[in-house]
Amino acid sequence: MFLSRTQVIVALAAVGLALFVLDLVRRRRLSEEYSLLWVVASVTIAILGFTTPLLKAITRTLGILYEGSTVFFFGLAFATAMLLYLSVKLSRLGQENHALTRELGLLRNEIDELRRAAPGAAPPGGGKAGA
Amino acid sequence: MIPGRVLVIVPAMNEEESLPVTLDELRRKAPGVAVLVVDDGSRDATTDVARARGVPVVRHAVNLGVGAALQTGFRWALAHGFDVAVQLDADGQHDPAFLDALVEPVLAGRCDVSIGSRFVSRSAYRAPAARRFGMVLFSAVVRLTAGVRITDTTSGFRAYDRAVMEVGQHDFPKDFPDAPLLIDLARRGFRLCEVAVEMRPREAGRSFYTLGKSLYYPYKNLLASLMVLVKRAG
């Protein structure tokens, strides 16, 4: 089998990315949910890098002049999709964070009220004496 | 004003200097009216200053913004059985002497949200040209998108009824408390009205509106106003 220099580089990049993603999951730094997307990405890179006829066919179908542009196009599309997905996740995280902060404040206030209503109750810090 | 039905919510962020003046004035000009301070992640003695005056405080551990502070206030107001919540700034801009006038149309059921406006009648307030242009612009945006005539969209002196609080405690455009909020409320079918009030310059502390923010403000709020239109009513 004959591999061009580009294909070797692509192969190394794809394998490197896949290994890095797997390692992140193994060390519990990346949740499975996100790892799926990255595994798909590295497999896509590998497929496009190795199957030159497929890459050529896609390039022709899309009316692109140069195969390299097709690779960049898919890379950019993936990066954009990933960023949008992360923005959605971030919005949700922000909303959850706000709700929790508000709820925490309200609970603290309720504890204050209850403590004032029942002066004998334990002060904060597990009932230590003192002002 | 009927005590026990109205809660004044004072959102406060690092207002240890202004807050005592505001709270004392509230007690003097609106005696018997319940007050809640929402300390929005202050790093100074805002919470202590309010507690020292016997005012209940709900404290956010981190700063979430005025809209979120208001949401917290709504939840507290509902849990404590209030019918109307008034938003009053801690910095002394809003005169409690106008509380009765502001609350009256909401208590009477003529509208769901009443907005204390500087422009409904002749007022001592004279804004700089750029600010005035912004106000005319956002007034037009609200009229075109929501079909309501609001002259003072940036006024933070407002009264909300139970219906608004019940929806707002969960779903509130909290990052955009001005024009986008008004459009959002109007599109949900809430009735907005304006009441003439006078406003004063700030007592102490820094104004929220710096130069950078005053340039960013129209962009942010114009875009957010349009986004409100896209949002599915939920």
UniProtKB/TrEMBL annotation, chain A:
Record's signal peptide? none
Q: Where are the transmembrane segments?
A: 6-25, 37-58, 64-86
Keyword line: Coiled coil, Membrane, Transmembrane, Transmembrane helix
Q: Signal: is it a keyword of this entry?
A: no
InterPro entries documented for this protein: DUF2304 (IPR019277)
Q: Does the keyword Coiled coil apply?
A: yes
Top-rank taxon of the source lineage equals Bacteria
- Residues annotated as coiled-coil are 90-117
Name used for this protein in its record? DUF2304 domain-containing protein
Automatic annotation (TrEMBL), chain B:
Domain Glycosyltransferase 2-like spans what residues? 8-165
Do you know which SUPFAM superfamilies this protein is assigned to? Answer: Nucleotide-diphospho-sugar transferases (SSF53448)
- By its UniProt entry, which InterPro entries does this protein fall under? Glyco_trans_2-like, Glycosyltransferase_2, Nucleotide-diphossugar_trans
Report the superkingdom from the record.
Bacteria
PANTHER family assigned to the protein according to its UniProt record, in alphabetical order: RFBJ PROTEIN, UNDECAPRENYL-PHOSPHATE 4-DEOXY-4-FORMAMIDO-L-ARABINOSE TRANSFERASE-RELATED
Mind telling me what this protein is named? Glycosyltransferase family 2 protein
